[in-house]
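Appendix B, Record 12. Input sequence as logged:
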Amino acid sequence: MTQNDFLQPALAGLANLQIILEEKGGPSADGQLFEQILGIQDNILKKFGLPISPDNEELLWFKSVPTDNEVGHRIDQLHSAATKYLLNNAKSDLQILRDAQQTKQDPMYVLPELKISTHNYTIFVYDKILLKQKDSVENILHDLKFANHPDILNALGQIQFGTTEQDPAIVYFLNSIGVKYIEQFLIHNSNLLSDDDY
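Logged structural output:
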């Protein structure tokens, strides 16, 4: 079985799920179906060695049931994107982050390229620590990679926005394992201070 034998039905099935989701009213109407669609998209992109970025996800988004020719065309586009990405991706993670800091790139493109989840915490670190040059790029990259673990991201996700009343056990856990910018993240989420205060 070739990769295209797997991709033809996978893309057709993905298109059907996307159409069902749109008919239901979008992601907010059926979060579980939306998560299923994201999982399928992630698996397809991984098979091509592509990061999960808006441009790559657009290659997998269908507005109507595609014909076999349309699916074949999308597969060709994915192959082309993968070739281009893999040939151009000779930079180290540190260099990618340095370049992103200098050019103020969108985190939705940079974090997936580094294989880091786009999560409230990782986006906070990118926007408020990296882009504002509050720490060295090396320290920031280390923390982003360290925090990019499902258990840590889950704990960070439990922090309530706009409140100073956090679960002390969660905060203690995150501090004790060494999440570097947890205090700044808490301050940011409390809405009590401006960016210059942390």
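The longest helix spans residues 3-24.
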